[in-house]
Amino acid sequence: MPTELEELVDFLHHGNTQIRQIAIENLVGYSTSQPSIFNAGQFTPVKDLKLLIRDYPPISNNALTILINLSDDREVLQSLATDDEFLESLLLRMSNPKEPNANLIAMLIANLAKSDDLKRIFSISRDVPNSLSSSKNAMDQLMDCFVKGAEGRYNEAADYDYLAYFFADIAKHPEGRSYFTSIREYDSVIPITKLIVFTEHKSNVRRKGVASTIKNTTFAIPSHPLLLSESEVDLLPYIVLPLMGAEDYSEEDSAHLPSSLQLLAADKTRDSDSAILITHLETLLLLTTTRAGRDHLREQVRVYPIVRELHLAIEDEDVREACDRLVQVLLRDEEDDGAGAVRDEGEGVGLVGDDEGRKEGVNTATAPATAPAAGTADGLHHYDVDDNDEDDEDEKITEIF
Fold first, then answer.
1. Cα–chain-centroid distance for residue 365?
2. N or C: which end of the chain has fewer CB within 10 A?
3. Beta-bridge partners for 342
């Protein structure tokens, strides 16, 4: 005989709207405390939830919340990430400027990026949402959503910050790195340049996701000249600025800083999140992989004084260790070569064994960044529901590293 919970799950596909709404409201809490109840009948409740995101906004809100919480289950994740119709439904609602649950959709899409199946986002062509983008490409549309939708400028009910986590995980793949460093035909812009402007944004979620996306993109070693070029991406000022406070630098050191990093305000503060500081330091370390990159960080933009001041000002040992690793590379004698160059691989780093690699490279032993974990060790977002909590969405995400 079915239990009361099993009967409640069956009501998810009831024909009466009020019954569906009561059932799903009562099931939200069980998506974290007893997620197995949604596995019944070969995940029939999950199939119901996929349909319910199209229902009335209150029902859709709860359906999205439950799916976010369930997506740390690999079978559920596979079911969601491989469903083309479901993905199109999410994208359709994401691009709607009146969608009340757009931030929840952004969270769910970020979770779906944990599946390699979502790499197909780069090849998905869909109708052009004229109010948002002029591109038919789904990835372009998500980028435009993130950029144009910051701080409720596109949709008053959404900021799309969690798309930054989606970009971070997508950039772990070669296809993602290629996308972020290649000019897009529809707007003649290199996508990474749209993201780097957010490294000082007020949203911690947006800053963290963007920092990880930048780091993962720099695993594409051939893209380093483009990333460092002042006439193309000009990445350095954007990842160095969060490391800086209101310190005074000598005239000689200041002369080697871009104009945007000189004469900072007296109340300038460095990023308060140690994880973000470490990510930027690891990105700088990756940019020292080649001799040209090291010379750029030593001479054209003198990074050492900035890292030195950061090391003096910060107490976090992990940040200080990341500073030490970078300084060892910047101050080393170039005649003392012996480390290998990082290969651009889809899921990690390796050492090039040829002579050219040993002469040119430096061991940047750091791994691709994963979007900040939340709720489980696998880095998925859990939306914790409290009937009395009316705070913003950012505070309903518990992050575990």
1. 21
2. N
3. 351
137 beta partners: 125
Long-range pairs, 357-362, Cβ under 8 A, ≥24: 360/290, 360/291, 361/289, 361/290, 362/288, 362/289, 362/294, 362/329
**66: Cα separation from own chain's centroid:** 22
Task: Compute mean pLDDT per 10 residues along the chain, 401 residues long, and list them.
Answer: 79 93 95 91 94 96 97 95 97 96 97 96 95 96 97 96 97 97 97 98 97 97 96 96 89 82 87 97 96 93 93 96 96 65 37 30 56 39 44 32 24
pLDDT of residue 300: 87
The answer to whether 115 touches 106, Cβ cutoff 8 Å, is no
Q: Nearest-CA neighbor of 198 among 148, 267, 131?
A: 148
- In angstroms, what CA-CA distances link 357 with 36, 75, 219, 220? 50, 41, 15, 15
Residue 260: both structure tokens together? 């945007």
Residue 75 near residue 82, CB atoms below 8 Å: no
Prediction pTM value: 0.85
Candidates 46, 117, 59, 52; CA nearest to 90 is 52
Cβ-based burial of 366 (10 A; exposed 0-12, middle 13-18, buried ≥19) = buried
Q: Residues with Cβ < 8 Å from 66, sequence gap 6 or more?
A: 24, 27, 28, 31, 38, 49
CB 55 within 8 A of CB 20: yes
- At 152 the pLDDT is 96
Amino acid at 227: L
Residue type, 12: L
Residue 125: what are its φ and ψ, rounded to 5°? -110, 135
